[in-house]
Design brief:
Length: about 500
């Protein structure tokens, strides 16, 4: 039995641990996101782009303030190996204080945010959403402890609870004619449910505590993480700021929906995997060679998973929009296609940052974040001078430059060669097969019903991709299947707090 506080002895063992917990985490993610997609599909038929756009503007302000939501204390807690109970209490105390402060701040600045975006109706929407800060802070440490101890099976309960309550209430209110407010009150109900369920599945009970030596250690590590997160949020959300400022709420609604599937299926997938990689890599933080091999093997598996999702969205964007969201969202099609390619590029070596955090070197991420931020903001600004599609292209160009910079640093820090990294991208060959099989189907089914067209494209692409990857990576695929089946071989021990 391997505890998360004990180092794994090989890249094979860390691969097993990651695969098993990634399976749990992806099950949780998959179920909640599948339900979320159904909810969004229903709401897209009930609400207008303007309704979505107004809530997106308010959510944008919340997202920027969330940079300060825990000062990186959650990540510091996951990485930490000693005095966990005291550290957890300290993190809880500060998170609660920060949550109360941020809720009060939102109440105060809401009129100015509405003035900036020329949307007076944002004031009340933003103020209500501001309460998510204080609500979320009550369960933030519980969530971090689940991640730290690799208890991803238990994450399923609060995440599904959030999705079901949020989705059910939002749909009910939308049917009753509440418009944008159906999304607002659904969000508040979902967050509240998630926190309640976190307290039920995590036995740890907090107490208010501040201890100077541990506090300084947590903040020293956490501030670097927070700074990196701040640059990431600023870069990732700058497109929404530009659209909200220079276009209108309807345009933002169209763009938000175009981003929905790439974000839901790909970018969120990367985050789900990172939630497993970070604590798993932290458990072998002092084993340089094992970390290097683990990085290479996880790169291969991530691309095997992500590549068909990205290319599938790219090819089938038209029938996807028509079937899932409706004819009123057709303007989202070219934007969605470009953003799917952006997500594919972004995924390459994405999780190397989790290794830097695991070995206590978040400063590497910070040094990378500064030039990446400058490139992203510049490319998005230039793209915004043309159209929504121009903004999406700005994301893609910035991602290409980011991957190049990331690869240069990875080669130096982890001592891997460019050839070793390229050897892990065999999924791209399968992607070519996917395109060869699916693009002709897309062309020859133009006059077919959208649902039948979508099914035909998916089946053709799946045949091409699975066939090619089975030929190229049969051993890797069989290894993953074997690890997932053999759940009894390595069982992460649950730490008591």
């Amino acid at each position: 039995m391997i505890s998360v506080d004990q180092p794994a002895s090989s890249s094979h063992e860390i691969g097993q641990k990651v695969a098993q917990n990634a399976g749990w985490n992806y099950l949780s993610f998959g179920l909640s996101k599948a339900l979320n997609l159904i909810v969004v599909s229903i709401l897209a038929h009930l609400l207008t782009p303007n309704h979505f756009g107004l809530v997106a503007l308010a959510t944008l302000a919340i997202e920027y303030l969330s940079i300060l939501s825990d000062f990186g204390l959650g990540a510091a807690l996951v990485q930490r190996r000693e005095n966990i109970d005291d550290a957890s209490n300290i993190a809880f105390t500060f998170n609660l204080l920060i949550g109360v402060f941020l809720t009060g701040l939102v109440l105060a600045i809401a009129p100015y945010v509405a003035m900036f975006f020329h949307e007076p109706s944002l004031i009340s929407i933003l103020r209500w959403l501001g309460f998510t800060f204080v609500i979320s802070s009550i369960g933030s440490v519980h969530k971090a402890l689940l991640q730290r101890d690799l208890r991803f099976g238990k994450k399923l309960v609060p995440e599904l609870g959030n999705t079901l309550v949020k989705g059910g209430l939002s749909i009910a209110l939308a049917l009753s004619g509440y418009g944008s407010w159906s999304l607002v009150f659904g969000q508040l109900a979902g967050v509240s449910t998630s926190v309640l369920l976190l307290w039920l599945v995590v036995s740890w009970k907090p107490r208010l505590q501040i201890k100077s030596d541990i506090t300084s250690q947590l903040f020293k590590y956490g501030l670097s993480i927070m700074t990196v997160s701040a640059s990431t949020i600023l870069a990732d959300s700058f497109d929404y700021v530009l659209i909200g400022r220079f276009f209108n709420a309807t345009a933002l609604g169209i763009y938000t929906l175009a981003y929905r599937l790439p974000d839901l299926l790909i970018i969120n997938t990367l985050s789900v995997l990172a939630a497993v990689f970070f604590p798993a890599f932290s458990s072998i933080q002092n084993q340089q060679d094992v970390l290097r091999k683990s990085f290479l093997s996880t790169t291969k598996y991530v691309q095997l998973l992500v590549t068909p999702l990205c290319l599938g969205i790219f090819v089938a964007a038209d029938p996807i929009i028509r079937v899932i969201f409706g004819e009123q969202w057709l303007a989202s099609i070219p934007i969605m296609q470009i953003l799917s390619m952006y997500a594919l590029v972004l995924s390459i070596g994405f999780h190397v940052g989790d290794i830097y955090k695991a070995i206590g070197r978040p400063d590497i991420l910070l040094k990378l974040a500064i030039p990446i931020l400058i490139v992203r903001l510049t490319s998005l600004w230039i793209g915004s001078q043309y159209s929504l599609t121009g903004i999406a292209i700005g994301h893609l160009i910035a991602a290409i430059i980011e991957v190049i910079l990331r690869a240069i640093v990875t080669i130096k820090v982890l001592r891997v060669s460019l050839r070793e990294m390229l050897n892990q991208l065999t999924a791209f060959i399968g992607g070519i097969a996917l395109l060869v099989f699916s693009v002709p189907v897309l062309y020859f089914t133009q006059d077919t019903l959208p649902l039948l067209r979508l099914i035909s494209i998916v089946v053709a692409g799946a045949v091409g991709y699975i066939g090619a990857t089975w030929f190229l990576e049969r051993d890797a695929i069989l290894n993953v299947i074997g690890v997932i089946r053999d759940k009894s071989r390595i069982t992460p021990k649950v730490s008591e707090h």
